[in-house]
Dihydropteroate synthase
Amino acid sequence: MPTTIMGILNLTPDSFSDGGRFDDGAGSPDVVAAVTEALRMAQLGAEIIDVGGESTRPGARPTPAEEEQRRILPVLGELLRCRMSVSVDTRRAATALAALKCADEAGADPRSLIINDVSGLLTEPAMPELIAETGAQIVITHNRGDSQTMSSLTVYDSLVEDVIDELLQLRERYLAAGARREQIILDPGIGFSKTHEQNWELIRELESFVRLGHRVLFGASRKGFLGSVVGEPTGGREPDAGSGDAAAAGAAHPLAHPRDHATAVLSALAAQAGAWGVRVHDVQGSRDAVQVISKLRS
């Protein structure tokens, strides 16, 4: 089967690429605009919509759980009522529980919901128990520290081996809590507690993660390490695909980002390596890339 496309729907004011795109002007998410964008991504080939209410870019300030839930739950409920497959990008067990309750209220099977947790070694103790009890799916991401500290935690004895070992330690927490192997998706954590060169090394060795026997999610879309390769000027915030009047309207196709072509190349490489899914901002480019790989492999 072709690699799954997970489309990113950031409901944050400060995400590195598209923060504030769905702000209603009064500090709340524009639910109609956000759902419209999710439907657009689905039409372009996104099989899962990844909804997030907290930026986890390096240096980002933590978002209180109540604020995170205020941003995502109204949109999540609408997406679930539209019978869309959804992933919730959260580090907090309380937000994951609120999302699962939202799924139940919308008539969705909690086991179909994916919790995309990038907290890595700082995973909250309650998260494995929640996943085991509810049967929801979980993305376990390799990470050290939080947004404030992870950039200083990039020393490894042997990068690939250490990342795999720490991922498997995290996996054991879930298995020990009673989660089933089929619920678990692994993510090597590109951009989290890694230098630019370490990101490239992990990408070269992506098959090592696939061989662990779990679904593997690959998320490198528009991340900073691509900037030096595509010749962007340094300094300042990354070009924003969701600024201006088009963003306020919410329905317009986002402007092309200078890292989207490079992201599509990596999506193709991830598909070639056997990754189950790629998490991307630009759905169409990565959809085309993984379909080409699927055709070649067939």
